[in-house]
Specification:
The chain is of the alpha+beta class. Among the domains are: about 40-45 and about 50-85, Roll (SH3 type barrels); about 90-165, Alpha Horseshoe (Serine Threonine Protein Phosphatase 5, Tetratricopeptide repeat); about 240-345, Tetratricopeptide repeat domain (Serine Threonine Protein Phosphatase 5, Tetratricopeptide repeat, Alpha Horseshoe). It is about 60% helix and about 10% strand. A hairpin with a 5-residue loop joins strand 3 (about 65-70) and strand 4. The N and C termini lie far apart (about 80 Å). Mean pLDDT is about 90; it is low at about 1-35.
């Protein structure tokens, strides 16, 4: 490749060759920055296990569709539920943050993702970063920050493929006055049903009547995912009553999308435990702990309660093993870790 009209004649032949090579490299660099290429892996709608690879530029990826611009300029669109994964280039800050998250350094990961968010211009990647930040806040036991970040994600894409990151509360825990006020504002927000669901989950034990009213309204919303989760949140309020219909709840689990079942499994397991149906309780609690490790609060609570089941079944060694696993896997879950240590000392 040469550029006869760009290189002055006063340069020597060798100089012209060198400048021509430099310009060629610059053109490649320019193309690389303006035409970002991704490889999208799509599941076949008819052949389970079959994947198709499409190379191009992802223009948009949300909860309903993915749009890909091919090198020819043609734009293709597919349902987002066919996306298996997307290979793309990420910033150094993003990759470093991901390593920190994998290594258990959530504070460093959070800082890295914030830097990556400031650097990133692609909307669909920014939403992915927000989803990672929710996970960091959850592990750091900062539920209000996790909820706030999730709502930024949801407002950008109400059908987000990262809805499984919604940081709902599935067990009672004390809130500071400031956090309680924030949860009230979310629950009373008429424009944002996801905020209402989050707020109600935080306030269900503190303000059961208003929270349950909110949950009942959300059961009839047309928004995806919200009705099933609102119904499952309502089960929490019924746990302490004599009208618990645990077999019906257990059956209803199948109607909840698999990626959202972690919290509902925990509640059903706790309900079986209250009714002293220990085998059913152990099954549901261990499902929650094993299948949903990224939902750290749910998984840790499930391990704790599964230990209670084993103790009730006169299996102290198994109970101790589960509590020790809780301590080792979820050291930041302070309340549960303390309870597990106390139970181990009693043994």
């Amino acid at each position: 490749m040469c550029f006869p009209n760009l290189i002055p004649n006063r340069f020597s032949f060798q100089g012209r060759i060198a400048l021509g090579s430099l310009l060629f490299i610059l053109v490649l660099m320019f193309q690389g920055t303006t035409l970002a290429q991704e490889t999208v892996h799509l599941r076949s709608p008819t052949n389970a296990g079959s994947l198709a690879k499409i190379q191009g530029t992802v223009l948009e990826y949300n909860g309903s569709t993915i749009q890909i611009e091919l090198p020819t300029g043609q734009t293709l669109q597919y349902p987002s539920d066919r996306v298996e994964k997307i290979e793309t280039e990420h910033s150094t800050a993003y990759l470093s943050a991901l390593d920190s998250l994998t290594g258990g350094n959530e504070a460093a990961a959070l800082r890295g993702f914030q830097t990556a968010l400031q650097q990133e211009t692609r909307g669909w990647v920014r939403r992915e970063i927000l989803a990672h930040q929710v996970q960091c806040y959850q592990r750091l036991q900062q539920p209000i920050s996790a909820a706030h970040t999730f709502l930024l994600l949801w407002e950008s894409d109400p059908q987000t493929p990262y809805f499984d990151r919604i940081p709902l509360r599935w067990h009672a825990e004390e809130l500071s006055q400031a956090d309680e006020q924030q949860a009230k504002r979310w629950m009373e927000n008429p424009e944002n049903p996801a905020a209402q669901l989050l707020g109600a989950s935080f306030l269900l034990n503190r303000y059961p009547q208003s929270a349950q009213e909110t949950l009942r309204r959300l059961e009839s919303t047309s928004r995806p995912y919200l009705p099933a989760l609102a119904k499952a949140q309502g089960w929490r309020a019924e746990l302490v009553t004599n009208s618990v219909q645990v077999p019906a709840w257990d059956t209803a689990l199948e109607s909840i999308p698999e990626e959202l079942r972690g919290g509902p499994l925990l509640v059903v397991g706790q309900a079986w435990l209250r009714q002293k149906e220990y085998e059913s309780a152990a099954l549901r609690l261990m499902e929650a702990a094993i299948l949903y490790p990224e939902q750290t609060q749910v998984a840790a609570q499930a391990l704790h309660d599964a230990g209670l089941v084993m103790a009730a079944m006169n299996q102290p060694d198994e109970a101790a093993r589960l509590w020790q696993e809780l301590i080792e896997r979820f050291p930041q879950q302070n309340r549960l870790v303390q309870q597990a240590r106390q139970r181990l000392q009693q043994f």
